[in-house]
Fold this protein.
Amino acid sequence: MFQGFYTLTSGVLTQNRNLNVISNNMTNAITPGFKSDRFVISDFYSEMMIRTGNKNKADTTRIGTMSMIAGGDETVTDYTQGGLSVTSSTLDFSLLGDGFFAIQTDNGTVYTRNGNFSLDDAGYLSLPEVGRVLGNDGPIYLGTDRITADSEGRLYNEQTGALLGQLMVVDFADYAQLNKEAGNVFTTNANAVASDAEIGWQTLEDSNADPVDQMTRMMVSQRALQSSAQILSIYDDLISQMRTMGPTS
């Protein structure tokens, strides 16, 4: 058996997973507040050493001297601030600084940087297909999109000047405890703390996924996958020829 089969097969599988992450980044390159991901690749030897030895890894035993396969270590989210785009909608908001909007769903509270809000059928401020936007006193009822807002997230009726609510913005001490979910939102069991991020009105935070950078990564990953697949085909042909020739006398 050719030992290279391990390296090449794991390379194909790993690059497929990498391409899935890159494709999702490219798909969301224009999604407000989207945070891009990066797939971290490590070798099998390193992964085994990480998983060996329970809590005390000081007396671990070497499992070999050669790494035969590549594996996926983790998918890391980039939380850097995206650019800001001015809009004409009175229900668009952005965050300048660390923090997240809080959204009430049927399964609990989720968090997002996407401030592309709208009114639901009952007149509540909501993130479409996700849930109602939470304020300091619960879901925010507006009843109209004719509003104004300040940098603290206080929302006022444009005609009467009445205070309608204030956007809740929270942050977390460790972003590693956030789990990215469908709908460009995050879930966590960690305790939320108040954020001092400035709230922009009639602006949206752009996705931080750079299409040019993601395209470059995709091309590199595709070439690596194609190379592995081609060499696997060569190995397969060699094995077929060896079987045809049979043992030599």
Remarks:
- The radius of gyration is 25 Å.
- Helices lie at 4-27, 44-51, 211-245.
- The chain has two domains: 4-79+209-245, 84-205.
